[in-house]
Structure formats: structure tokens, C-alpha cells
């Protein structure tokens, strides 16, 4: 009986040690994968969320300004204040030539 308890105790210690080693290996593997992914992402030259949002805001503002200027130009053209194509003047026989 004594030897049987001792065998069970030894097996329990081995299983416990193996579980500890497996947990340590898991942590090591996760750390390696995390490091590889960080290296891969750094090599991809990606932008941060903050940089993306800043550029997005600038682009939206530029788009709004462009639309406002397009409306203003259309109104001025309708009023006859400016030529239909800025930078182009009518030359001989109605052909457009670049303005100098």
C-alpha cells in the first residue's frame, strides 16, 4: 500500500511539473509571436490611429472648402464676372489659347 501511494504521489508531482513547464512554454511562445507581429507591423510602415484621424479631418476640411469654392465659381460664372475657364482666353476665330 505504501509503495502504491508513493507511485501516485510521484505521478502527481510529475504531472504538476509538466503543467508548470507547459504554462511557461505557452508564455514564451506568446511572447515570441507578439514580438514577431510587432516587428512585422513596424516594417509595414503603418500609421497610428491618431495620425489617420488627423489626416482624415484635414482631407474633409479641404473637400468642404473645394466644394464651397466650386459653388462660388459657378455663381460668378453665371453672373458673367469670370470666364468659363480661368487662365484661357479666346484667340483668333474663337479658338481657346493659353493666357500669358
Overall pLDDT: 83
Shape descriptor reads rod-shaped
The gyration radius over C-alpha positions equals 37 Å
SS elements, strand count: 2
Order of helices and strands: HHEE
Give the terminus-to-terminus CA distance: 111 Å
Number of contiguous helices: 2
The level of helicity is over 70%
- Helix and strand composition category: mainly alpha
The share of residues in extended strands comes to 5-15%
Uncertain ranges: none
Strand order in the largest sheet: 1-2
The largest sheet is: 2 strands, antiparallel
Count of individual domains: 2
Describe the protein.
With 100 residues, this protein is mainly alpha-helical. It has two domains: 1-46; 47-100. It is 73% helix and 6% strand. It has two helices and two strands, in the order H-H-E-E. It has a two-stranded antiparallel sheet with strand order 1-2. The longest helix has 42 residues, at 2-43. The radius of gyration is 37 Å and the shape is rod-shaped. The N and C termini lie far apart (111 Å). The model has no long low-confidence stretch (mean pLDDT 83).
